[in-house]
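User: I'm new to structure prediction. If I give you an amino acid sequence, what do you actually give back? Let's try with this one:
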Amino acid sequence: MRIMNQEPRRRSPRCPSIDLGDALKRTESIYQKGRTHAMMADAAAQSLGYKNSGSGIAKSILAALCYFGLIERKGGKFSVSSDFEKYMHAPDKEKGLHYLETFLKKPTIFESLIEKYGMELLSLPSDAIIKYDLIEQGFRPEAAEEAVGAFKRSLEFIERQQDSDLEIQKESENDTNINNEDETIKRNTENKEIRNNIELSEFKKITIFLPEGREAVLHVPRPFYIKDKLTINRQIGALLADDEDLNDAGGPKG
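Assistant: Good question. You get back a string of structure tokens that encode the predicted 3D arrangement of the chain. For your 254 residues, that looks like this:
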């Protein structure tokens, strides 16, 4: 009986099995346990919630973190990269985004996709086209599909970070506009009060005491001329003559 030699199972190129956002969360778990100090593979796996580093899923996750440049492997030990620590303590959003793009381009296959299609989701072709592209580069179909998903989710994660940065800028601009509007209103109010004070200073207030404790107040301009007095007398006389509620005695009709 002749035994046919079976073709060995083809391995796909190295590529993260998870997206960048997920990888960052997992790396932070390791960082909280040992900062950037080297630790045994089992300890790194346990920081991620696995019993040890022997399981397939633990190996896959640790490998993905290495592909992104989030952790480094030396011998049988793992340590969080200095770039991840810098990202964690980035002084501003712009610097943080710089590190995110660096991590995204670290896997060779992701870098090639970015060079070909760009980093904007809207500029990407269909999943089928990207998958076929990866198969041509040596990926098995199922591995290519997994890589496409991880790549697109990573781009979505970075776009969300960029959008949140824009929202913060918009809120800051809105606060500035509100403050400017408040300052404008305050200045207008102050200017109006100044104008009112100036206008009032140009007049002299004259109080005329009337019977029954009543008062009449006149604001006469400065300077005040004799012709002004005559004009006021004529107009007051005309107003009183037209007022049907007043009689010749100077009191209300009864």
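You can read the tokens as a compact description of the fold. Here is one thing that stands out. The chain has two domains: 20-163, 202-242.
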